[in-house]
Amino acid sequence: MIRFDNVTKVHGDTSHPALDGVSVEIDRGEFTFLVGASGSGKSTFIRLVLREETASRGAVHVAGQNVSAIPAWRVPRFRRGIGVVFQDFRLLPNKTVFGNVAFAMQVLGRSRTAIRQTVPVVLETVGLHGKDGRFPHELSGGEQQRVAIARAVVNRPAILLADEPTGNLDPTTSMGIMNVLETINQNGTTVVMATHDGAIVNELRRRVIELDHGAVVRDEAEGIYEGAR
Ligand SMILES: Nc1ncnc2c1ncn2[C@@H]1O[C@H](COP(=O)(O)OP(=O)(O)OP(=O)(O)O)[C@@H](O)[C@H]1O
């Protein structure tokens, strides 16, 4: 589903590559943690999958496509197949919970009927039943992240990328978010989550790809993470 073939990414005039000869393959339906210290290259990995950046050397394949070869005009359509969540939620502050999730369907031109049918189901999946009319400022951080996840998956993407989704949340709330991500993964979505939260990684025991200064230093099934080297 995601394949990096000897990928190096050098930003502008920097000397050390953000990613350095990375080769990994993530299969359809996997749940993978991407771990490493701040600056190890996790966000760069995610931006390369989304084609927000392109590889300096090597190739990134997503769902069978070499992302560097996708013409600019097709990039928006390509990105629709990928849901993304961030540490800082990025909700629309003047839209309700329902409105935030519905908006992701509206921009694709989905019908009002489809939106009315789909959004409540997704809100139920993320554990926000009954909160559809709230505005983001009326929600806890964990609830806001649930809205962001609902918005990211409402169009049924094949892949969900999560960049430090629990970075702003306390441990208990974080575990609730992890349960939501596991449910989404069980429904068939490939999940890649960047984190440096060892407690979460060690609790879930999923695949762990560790980056250090842009290089893969460990790739283990059911791995653990004891913090940056
Ligand atoms: N646009 C850019 N221009 C120059 N250097 C960059 C750029 N983006 C990232 N870098 C550098 O590339 C390296 C990897 O950064 P990246 O953001 O991928 O790390 P990260 O593991 O996601 O870190 P964090 O956990 O802090 O988000 C860092 O040295 C960073 O300073």
Automatic annotation (TrEMBL):
UniProt-listed InterPro entries: AAA+_ATPase (IPR003593), ABC_transporter-like_ATP-bd (IPR003439), ABC_transporter-like_CS (IPR017871), ABC_transpr_LolD-like (IPR015854), Cell_div_FtsE (IPR005286), P-loop_NTPase (IPR027417)
Keywords on record: ATP-binding, Cell cycle, Cell division, Cell membrane, Membrane, Nucleotide-binding
GO MF term (any one): ATP hydrolysis activity
Encoding gene, per UniProt annotation: ftsE
Membrane topology, from the record: Peripheral membrane protein
Native organism: Tersicoccus phoenicis
Name of this chain's protein: Cell division ATP-binding protein FtsE
Residue span, ABC transporter domain: 2-229
Superkingdom, natural source: Bacteria
GO (cellular component) term, any one: plasma membrane
Assembly notes: Homodimer. Forms a membrane-associated complex with FtsX.
BP terms from Gene Ontology: cell division
Family recorded in the similarity comment: Belongs to the ABC transporter superfamily.
Functional summary from the UniProt entry: Part of the ABC transporter FtsEX involved in cellular division. Has ATPase activity.
Localization of this protein: Cell membrane
Location, primary (coarse class): membrane
